[in-house]
User: Fold this.
Amino acid sequence: MSVVPPVPPPQPGAGGRHRNRSGVDITGAGVGRWLLHRLVHRLPHPPRAPVPALAPPLAFLRANRAVPTCTLIGHCTLLVQLDGVNLLIDPVFSRVASPFRYAGPRRHQPPAIALGDLPPIDLVLISHDHYDHLDRPSVRALARQPGGMPHFLVPAGVDGWMRRAVPALRATPERVRGFHWDETLDWPGATSPLALHFRSVQHWSNRGLGRNRTLWGSWAVTHPHGRFWYAGDLGYSDEPRQIGEALGPFDLAAIPIGAYEPRWFMRAQHVNPDEAVQVLRDVRGRTGLGVHWGTFALANEALDEPPRALAAALAARGEPADRFLAVPPGTTLSWGAGRPVAVLSP
Assistant:
């Protein structure tokens, strides 16, 4: 493994808190007003129909060492396979996205792949420390993976939380590594190394009372067989364009399309579907995959609204419907350099 150091590493600001490079500070101002409006108006409204889930091609995924794939397990949890390496992104397999076992936003469908049915995971990538992206029971279970613990690649500061929260890591602290923005790690693939790039986007972090004390960001994975970008959570800024110029074009880009209403409160932290299409263009993504919708009700829009809004945004911008996909959990896409994105059947 080799590491390219950041130039320069981001330094926390006043009080040890990180700040967005865009200059936008995302505070908790207005959260009480939003929650009261949500309660009074009984938002979000229920979906028109339950968000479906598909059965993924498990036997193929367990045996696959050659075909680049991406499986949406639910919300932002993705299984990405590239050149024999299995990457699991933002694993959340619990019933709720919350610090509490029985309270908080609940799942509206089970994970499309159960933890015990995953292929052996080599790398776990975390974008930031929010509960719908970093789940203590899930990372603890992954650390007990039969056949050996995966390596955890996390934003700077989250590595300390991991070593405290995951008992297995106390004996093997080298299995988790914190990344600053602009750091790159080379990881061996079957034919050539994967380059994993941690890049900044506009968002924030908080777990408990430590707002912005850990970093947040996006992950790009580049390899001769394909280039993939996972946006994490983000508000619209110039950073995806910078990422696209530096590391694109991307064959597949996983971008949030949900948790965007009301705009007066969510705009700085979550793109809406129209902005997500612009992010896809900015990052030079050939095909988009919508994430961050349909599993946890985190904002005012209904769970099934984002795909309809995405379809309208694509049409308004003159983009083909298959430029940016909103697929049910369990969908497995094949992708890669020089090949069209396609849905694999179970």
